Amino acid sequence: MMRHRIEKALAERQQAFLYRQRQVVEPAGRTLLHQQQSYLNFAGNDYLGLAASQELKNAFIKGVELFGCGSTGSPLVNGFHTVYRDLEQQIADWLGFESVLLFSTGFSANSTLLKTLFGKGDTIIQDKLNHASLIDGGLASAAAHYRFNHNDTDHLKGRLDKLASAPSNLEAITTAIVSEGVFSMDGDSAPVAQLKQLAQQYQSMLVLDDAHGIGVKGQNGQGTWFDERCQNQPDILVATFGKALGLSGAFIAADNYITDYLVQFARSYIYSTALPPAQAYAMQASIELVKSQNWRREKLNNNIALFRELMAQTDFELLTSSSAIQPVIIGDADKTLHLAEYLQSRGIWAKAIRPPTVPANSSRVRITLSADHEVADIKQLVSTFQSACAAFNQGSV
Fold this sequence. Notes:
Helices cover 43% and strands 17% of the residues. By secondary structure, the chain is α/β, with parallel strands linked by helices. The protein folds into 2 domains: 17-48 and 294-393, Aspartate Aminotransferase, domain 1, CATH 3.90.1150; 54-292, Aspartate Aminotransferase, domain 2.
């Protein structure tokens, strides 16, 4: 019975052009290798070009020499090394929070936070386009779970008004507004200052996942809420090391009482092996590079501006995004898949994003830009889009 059900589900996904496949690649900065062929890489999240930088490679190598390869345990047994303590303090000082807690993955940090911190009687209100890790965490918690229309503060306010008018023991409940800083599929930014204002007005908490803003936004890369000039920081900030910071892992930044509570009750933190200490050592170097090498953000922003300027001269539709994430909306999943295949056939690595990752009829080729990209790379990318448009019009694709 199980085999039949699984095979049926897989066949249905293939028929709808939604079947996912892994492709073996060898990343190399702005390019990658696939089956011994080189491609310009416009699909990665290495926004500042740090992952392939010699400075970060050297730091990782030194970390391995100092600390070995693995942590050998959970943070509460024998896996909390001095380098983790130092990294947590460095992040707290950089971002202005009381404390920081490290996690092995961003998905774990997000889902663990919501399902552990919020319980029966609490309410979580999330942006509809939040990452799957936040949605899963909200659904797994015992709290009431609601969604508000994407970046629609009026709709959010209506939700909060209804909650405020309902009878409750206010001392026993917490309402959390949850949003991404930069949205992973649309590339637009949350109105963080307005969200914080509403959180204060309705005595709620603001939880911000800034996976795609940290390192990129703000004068020294502190993220979206700095870039939005929000006068008060989010109550809880989650971000990953796997995007602009060039490594992997994640952290939660908050007041001491929150991180202490998570240490006591967050099962995925308590029972998971800590990330490699060499990686934490390299992360310290990455943050210093982010703070000191403003040229990386400047080059990235120039690349974003050039791409949008050149794409405006084509027939393709872009969303309103000033971030490194630049979705090219196609709509139909089949056409989107064929467009991505056309780009790949001409040396451009950019992947088709289809439902259920994005809403129905909003399939897109998701372009991600990096400080590693050169002007010639972006011109080649846009030129390939133009030739794809001509080929589609002639029916040859």
